[in-house]
Design goal:
heterodimer, B: mainly alpha, 4 helices
Chain lengths: ~150, ~160
């Protein structure tokens, strides 16, 4: 049950907080669009590389396995970033609309997207740090065995 | 000599003018009735977002520390030039990462304390930290892309001269 006094002391997006959230949303939108463009450029570069590699394979009959793996990993990384930026873009668009139209539902929806974005980033960063630690340990063992 | 009451009257007049100007230029100063509220759903969403943001910031800071360790204690078999460049890149990346993650941590802490203590000032500070975090990220990415383009241009000019 909601406390009747809540409305008196409740937090709100006052003029200052609204200005900050609009600023955040504008930068979020800029960053998301920038990543969309970079992802598009990267996909084009990938397609060119794949076509060139297929051409070379038919003429030289060699298979550049390392290059293919590196391309695959980079493509995966770009997809991971792209998904995060979709959440960020949605947060930005909805937050700007919520503040402009003073729309409470839209504000809740934008905060939902912000939550999804931070959760997604959290999971990805945990996976990233685990892989980084594993890589460091493997490297250390490889160095020790080389000595 | 100007009488005392005249000076007081001038000050009062100036203050009322300033107040009127503020109301004209900033119509939202007193429209609390029409502000967006942080209801229960929004509060719960913000709380979760802040918790995850704190995790991201802590993991980011730990990652930065690991990157520094790896850069200094990393590949000793490589040449001194390679080690120096990898250490330099690691330091620059770590500085950027630390600045960004401090803003993110401030966002998470301020939002959490603002929501738990119903403190509007803390809440506003938290939202400001989010804005600063995104602004810094944007500026860093613009600088990085500009440097990459400059590097490509210099490299292609160098290759053309040979």
């Amino acid at each position: 049950m909601q406390n009747p006094n809540d409305s008196l002391f409740a937090l709100e997006f006052d003029h200052q907080a609204s200005a900050y959230i609009v600023q955040s949303a504008k930068w979020s939108r800029f960053l998301a669009i920038l990543w969309f463009v970079l992802c598009g450029l990267f996909v084009i570069a990938c397609l060119i590389t794949i076509v060139t590699t297929i051409d070379r394979q038919t003429t030289l009959t060699t298979y550049d396995m390392g290059g293919q793996v590196a391309l695959g990993v980079t493509l995966l990384w770009f997809i991971v970033i792209l998904v995060g930026n979709i959440f960020r873009y949605r947060f930005a668009i909805r937050a700007i609309r919520a503040i402009r139209d003073t729309d409470q539902q839209m504000l809740v929806s934008s905060l939902g997207q912000l939550r999804l974005y931070t959760k997604y980033c959290g999971i990805i960063s945990i996976i990233g740090i685990v892989l980084l630690i594993a890589g460091t340990i493997i490297n250390a063992f490889a160095d020790m065995s080389a000595l | 000599m100007v009488p005392f009451y005249y000076t007081q009257l001038t000050i009062l007049n100036n203050r009322s003018k300033a107040l009127q100007m503020d109301t004209n230029t900033n119509p939202n100063t007193s429209d609390n009735l029409f502000d967006l509220a942080i209801d229960d759903t929004a509060r719960s969403l913000l709380k979760t977002a802040a918790t995850w943001a704190k995790i991201v910031a802590i993991v980011g800071l730990a990652g930065a520390a690991l990157a520094v360790i790896e850069a200094f204690a990393g590949n000793r078999a490589a040449g001194s030039m390679t080690i120096a460049s990898s250490v330099l890149i690691a330091i620059v990346t770590v500085v950027f990462s630390v600045i960004l993650n401090i803003f993110l941590l401030r966002f998470a802490s301020n939002i959490q304390s603002g929501l738990s203590g119903m403190n509007q000032a803390n809440f506003n500070e938290g939202v400001n930290s989010l804005a600063l975090y995104l602004k810094c990220m944007g500026i860093f990415i613009i600088v990085a892309i500009s440097l990459a383009i400059l590097f490509v241009l210099i490299f292609s000019a160098f290759m053309g001269m040979r």
